[in-house]
Amino acid sequence: MAIGHRRGWSMTAGIAVLVAGGLYFAGPWALKNWAVDALEKATGQPVALEHLSFNPFTATASLRRLDIGNSDSPMIHVDKAEVALAWHTLWQSGIHVERVDLTGPRLHLVTTSDGLNITQLGGSDDAGKSTALIIDSIKAQNGEIDWVNRTQSPPVQLAVTDLSLTLEDYDSRSASPMQGEATGTLNGGQLHADGRFGVSPLTGDLQVKGQDIGLELINPWLSRLSRVQIDQGTLSAHGTLAFGEAKQGQVQWQGELEASAVSVLDGRQRPFFSVDQARLKGMDLLTGDHLKADRLSMSGSKMMAIIDEDGSFNLTTSLGLQSGESSTQDQTSQDNAQQDNAMAIALGHMDVSDGVFNFEDRHMSPKVTLGIESLEGTMQDFDTRQDTPASYTFKGLESRQTPVTIKGQFNAAAPSGIMNLKVDRLPLERFAPYIQRFGGYRVEQGTADLDLHYRLHDGRLDANNHVILRHLDLGEEVPGGDTSLPLKNLIAVLQGEDGVINLDIPIDASVEGGGVDVSKVVWQIVGEALENMVTSPIETLEAMISGDDDSDDNAGSGKASRAYTEGPLSQVVTDPSDE
Fold first, then answer.
1. What is the Cα–Cα distance from 135 to 176, expressed in whole angstroms?
2. Angstrom distance (rounded) from CA 365 to CA 437
3. Residue 543: exposed, middle, or buried by beta-carbon count in 10 A (0-12, 13-18, 19+)?
4. pLDDT by 10-residue block (mean), the chain, 579 residues
């Protein structure tokens, strides 16, 4: 009996070894087919798997080259993985994975008119025909996530590389998001995110921190709004990012941004704007609704405004601002239709320090240049949806010596505002090309004090400009100047004994055009002439008669019949026959 009993146990043990050996050698083939079939049912996508091995003693599977999705461009690719299955998965429906360790995973995201491809994971809408997939923990290293937005032309691409990822509690049967944490590299900078993330439906509520991310990555989106392009610069950020179902299909960012060493090119690839450092605090962006910030601080900013040889202005052409009557009419109907749905923009406070504003008019010959340095100032309470004006004050130095002050208010909700520009002792040589062209004479010397007041209201622009010219000395006449006024005679009449000319020039115009109130200017000239006649009658008469040495020579040249066709005096009637 004892011998027979021992033989029975030996046979049982042998059968067990044979079964275990069969499972060890034949199991991978059967398990591979089973895994491919189960994953296809669980994800609703085609699955390809190069190799799978299974250890029945630990219920652990090792695999190589797993592709989920289209074979040409799979949605998910994994170089290597180790999967620890829950034991009950072997005899129950569905797949329950306790742990997944991934090496070299790649997630390929594509946005089309149908939405984001990853939202298609999860099998058919009929839950009874799909296989449940439960994963307790996912860990990945050396991963990559790339995203292509094919709704734009050309398509836009972003990629996060060197990805390390941890996710927990995935269940294909549930809409509950996973909890996770990830770090990676985005356009040369570091990116860290942690929070809750769901695939179907797509949802996210993440704490995000970025450091030294290259700003050039936003150029594809920037090109849809304007012709400017970021040449260089880095972005750092920390805040909360919510998207998808977490924000009713919208994207919201709340937090702070900091940009460093930013350089922006205009539509002709020339320097347009730069800033050493810009900080945006208390930012709240909700796509399609609002962009708000508590404070914007800019240090070392530089703006370049250029009027080109063809008369185009780089600020309007590069920023996509329309000009001209026809484009204005076309845009007006669109603006009226979209006004109620326009994104609100609000900024509580902006401060600028150590700024520079450069201006070039290349349409003139010689070229006109103007540079305001040491620019500092503030703006407060800007809001496009509130019928209250924002106030601003900026100060700087023209050519490091002439003080310039700009201050006023602007209401963006109902375009209106006031502006006061004051400049003391501005050398007129800066504007010599304008005086040569529209005045007809070279400028030897002189300074100007400007006190300019502008008011925009109800589509009209009113201005009262107080101009004081000191010691204006004109040189020889420039051939081909666009003038019909005896400028030297006027200066001689208006200039007092102290070499000062004092003028108030009112303007009343619509936003589509307007002109100088010539009658008030003429009465000022008459008044100045009478005053000078009383105080210095002989000098005044001499100036009126012979102040322009070349007036007789020019009398028959036809200049007297020419009116202004360009510039700020283009609306002034200089010939009675024009009325």
1. 13
2. 9
3. buried
4. 51 56 59 80 86 84 90 89 82 81 92 81 54 87 91 85 93 84 95 89 90 92 84 96 77 95 93 96 89 95 90 79 45 46 84 93 81 93 88 91 91 83 85 72 84 81 81 78 64 73 66 48 50 49 47 38 37 37
The Cα–Cα gap between 89 and 168 comes to 19
| Helix/strand/coil for 69 | coil
- Cis status, amide bond into 154, omega within 30 of 0: yes
Q: Is 204 helix (H, G, I), strand (E, B) or coil?
A: strand
Cα 190-192-197 angle, rounded to 5 deg:
140
The tally of CA atoms less than 13 A away on the side-chain side of residue 498 is 6
Chain centroid offset of residue 477 CA: 48
Among 92, 91, 27, 93, which residue's Cα sits nearest to residue 56? Answer: 27
Q: How many CB atoms lie within 10 A of CB 15?
A: 10
- Omega of the bond leading into 201 within 30 degrees of 0 (cis): yes
- Which SS3 state, helix, strand or coil, does residue 527 take? helix
Three-state secondary-structure class, residue 4: helix
Whole-angstrom Cα distance, residue 446 to residue 433?
Answer: 14
Instruction: Decide: 241 and 253 in contact? Cβ < 8 Å.
Output: yes
Residue 471 C-beta-side C-alpha neighbours within 13 Å: 8
Beta bridge partners of 411: 416
pTM of the model: 0.72
